[in-house]
Amino acid sequence: MMLHQDSNCIFCKIVSGQIPARVVKQNDRAMAFLDAFPLAAGHVLVVPKAHFQKIQDMGAPDARAVFDLVHKITGRIESAAGTSASTIAVHNGKEAGQEVPHVHVHIIPRKPGDGAGPVHSMFKNRPRLSAQEMDALLGKMME
Ligand code: 5GP
Ligand code: ZN
């Protein structure tokens, strides 16, 4: 299979073996490896082998392969890290905090007292939306 890759991309270089990584598991379209600068012990990244910046840029086979790997390894990551929970997150675009512009799913083992919180704790200025505003958003999403 010919892979669309970006020669300047650090995750493409990991996929092609040009730079080393601690690979947890892979399938034909996705790869899971340890984050080199972990937020918690056992922090893993799952990437499509082809270069796409955002979730919606992937085709369905790549999206399925990525989530299949997430599904297969999360239990083992939690038990290896001695936890019974994990935060699974995607920074989908620059404004969301994405620094490496190649889709990656973070799997971060979580423990009581680890100092992090739920996704909700990231948002300090929640909007108050009227029913009309919610309906208008829904309408646009369903179009
Ligand atoms: P982002 O902020 O884009 O969602 O996350 C990028 C992640 O890639 C960070 O958690 C960072 O620690 C990780 N990372 C950056 N460079 C490398 C690398 O060369 N090897 C590995 N294994 N992880 C990396
Ligand atoms: Zn890439």
UniProtKB/TrEMBL annotation:
Which stretches are annotated as coiled coil? Answer: none
- Pinpoint motif Histidine triad motif by residue range: 102-106
Q: List, for all copies, the residue spans of the domain called HIT.
A: 10-117
| Catalytic residue positions | 104
Q: What are its GO biological-process terms?
A: nucleotide metabolic process
Q: Which GO terms describe its molecular function?
A: catalytic activity
Q: Which domain of life is it from?
A: Archaea
Q: Please provide an example of a Pfam family that matches this protein in its UniProt record.
A: HIT
**Protein name per its UniProtKB record:** Putiative histidine triad (HIT) protein
The organism is Nitrososphaera viennensis EN76
